[in-house]
Design goal:
With 218 residues, this protein is of the alpha+beta class. It folds into two domains: 1-27; 31-216, no CATH class. The protein contains five helices and 14 strands. It has helices at 2-19, 21-27, 119-130, 134-148, 161-164, and strands spanning 32-33, 39-46, 51-59, 62-67, 74-79, 85-86, 92-93, 96-101, 106-107, 112-115, 153-159, 167-172, 177-188, 208-216. The strands form three sheets. The chain has a seven-stranded mixed sheet. Strands 7-6-5-3-12 form a five-stranded antiparallel sheet, with no helix packed on it. Strand 5 and strand 6 (85-86) form a beta hairpin. Helix 3 (119-130) packs antiparallel against helix 4. It starts with a helix and ends with a strand.
């Protein structure tokens, strides 16, 4: 009998914790959240003239998908000024793709709480400020919007050093300009208040590398 009562008390506590999760977040936004995966980072290469480029990734986690395949831990492609990438077999690609699982803690001390129905407009504006061109922003939005727009709210924070410190790219020859846009986000049932994040501008010059990706925090 005592054991049964103990189980019932534990179950009740678990239910209360689950019911108050959003209320706690509303009162005080979570600063660090842990993702299940880093979803769809893609890398575009834009040299001024056609050149051979090698890209390697040092990732603090487990890679779950890579396309095209790496050889000896790196991609080796011929990059054209329009962004077309060609491998040794002659196959062409628009970008390099990878996905992985890590225990990185993403920073939500600043960011944005966006109503689900406003997500497309928000992303168009934010990605333009960050420096993605129209094609890159379109591919970003088409990937993420179906997961976000039906939510009542989305908590969004773009990650910079927090992301790049655990997913390090080495590119040879070294680019003149590198932009890495990574969005960590979480669906919410109620809004939260947090300081708005300042989004840095980016200038494309010479050999430019652009990456975008994101992680949904469940």
């Amino acid at each position: 009998m005592k054991r049964t009562i103990l189980y019932l008390m534990l179950a009740a506590l678990a239910l209360l914790a689950g019911c108050t999760q959003d209320e706690e977040l509303s009162a005080k936004p979570v600063i660090y959240l842990y993702p299940e995966s880093d979803a769809k980072p893609v890398d575009y290469l834009y040299p001024e003239a056609e050149m051979e480029v090698t890209v390697s990734l040092d990732y603090d986690g487990e890679l779950t998908c890579v396309y095209p395949a790496m050889e000896n831990g790196a991609w080796s492609v011929t990059a054209s000024p329009d962004g077309t990438l060609t491998d040794a077999s002659g196959q062409t690609y628009n970008y390099l793709y990878w996905e992985g699982v890590s225990a990185t803690a993403y920073d939500f001390s600043q960011g944005f709480c966006v109503p689900g129905g406003d997500t497309a407009a928000f992303l168009e504006d934010a990605l333009s400020q960050l420096g993605l061109n129209r094609r890159e922003a379109n591919e970003f939005i088409v990937y993420w919007l179906p997961r976000m727009e039906a939510n009542p709210y989305n908590l969004i924070a773009f990650q910079f050093d927090t992301y790049t410190d655990h997913a390090r790219l080495t590119i040879t020859p070294e680019p003149d300009a590198t932009l890495r846009v990574f969005m960590a986000w979480r669906p919410l049932s109620t809004p939260v208040e947090l300081p708005a994040q300042e989004l840095p501008a980016f200038e494309r010059t010479g050999f430019t590398v652009v990456e975008w990706g994101g992680a949904e925090i469940s």
